[in-house]
Design brief:
- By secondary structure, this protein is of the alpha/beta class.
- The protein has one domain: Metal-dependent hydrolases (TIM Barrel), CATH 3.20.20.
- The chain is about 35% helix and about 15% strand.
- It starts with a helix and ends in a 24-residue tail after the last helix.
- It catalyses: O-phospho-L-tyrosyl-[protein] + H2O = L-tyrosyl-[protein] + phosphate.
- It is an enzyme of class 3 (hydrolase).
- Belongs to the metallo-dependent hydrolases superfamily. CpsB/CapC family.
């Protein structure tokens, strides 16, 4: 379906993602997770994202308590450094921060005790699941998020291979109130053909709310730059652009 995005062509054009305008999933605060390591790398990637057509970036550091013990304070301090560097470099991109929360015991505790969680606009909470083993209570946990007043956004659902044999689970999650965010690189098979098929299935069944880069390094953005553009992007109702009009949480 999306060979326009990563297909081969004799004349390769730079892709324009200004139709989307806002990226809600990336790892651009240096040194706090498995994303960029230096401020220079962060600035270079933000410039590249600007050239792709993004005007807003909400970067989302991992919060995984076994390895990335990021708190709102740590994330805000790192964001301030990035924002200051962007101003110094005259980069005309709005950069904000939320977080990508791994659903583990620590997350459940933070949710149940009312601790501060960093959200996307609209009080949206970006969450991710384990890659190899499914949670026993995925639906219940997402419902708990809603009960606490948040809108759950499930990051890269196409990459949870244990759901590939029963993709109807995603229809159920969406019906339950969860939004889905697919990675751009999944559509071109970057994570493997099965993940690509799953990403396209989600699109074909109108289950995708957001398209994100999930950019950790420049190589991810360079892969997007190799893509071709056509009119399809303008026809799919991604909601990224609608977030620009919402207040930052």
């Amino acid at each position: 379906m999306l060979n326009w995005l990563f297909g081969k062509s004799k004349a390769v054009e730079s892709v324009s993602l200004n139709r989307i305008g806002i990226d809600i999933h990336s790892h651009l605060i240096p040194g706090i997770d498995d994303g960029v390591e230096t401020l220079g790398e962060s600035i270079e990637m933000i410039r590249k994202m600007e050239s792709l057509g993004y005007s807003h970036i909400i970067t989302t550091p991992h919060v995984i308590w076994d390895c990335y013990k990021n708190t709102p304070q740590i994330i805000r301090q790192g964001l301030a450094v990035v924002q200051q560097a962007c101003r110094a470099e005259n980069i005309d991109v709005t950069v904000q921060a939320a977080a990508e929360y791994f659903i583990d015991e620590h997350f459940v505790e933070m949710l149940s005790t009312g601790q501060e969680l960093l959200t996307l606009p609209g009080n949206r909470l970006l969450v991710e699941l384990p890659y190899s083993t499914p949670l026993m209570n995925t639906s219940e946990t997402l419902f708990d998020i809603i009960e606490k007043g948040y809108q759950p956004v499930l990051a890269h659902p196409e990459r949870y291979v244990y759901f590939h044999s029963e993709p109807s689970i995603f229809s159920k999650l969406v019906a339950q109130g969860c939004e889905l965010q697919v990675n751009i690189l999944s559509l071109g098979g970057y994570y493997g053909p099965n993940v690509g098929k799953m990403a396209n299935w989600l699109l074909e069944n109108n289950l995708v709310t957001f398209l994100g880069t999930d950019a950790h390094k420049m190589a991810h953005l360079n892969m997007i730059l190799k893509s071709n553009k056509n009119g399809w992007l303008a026809t799919y109702p991604f909601q990224n652009e609608n977030l620009i009009e919402k207040q930052w949480q």
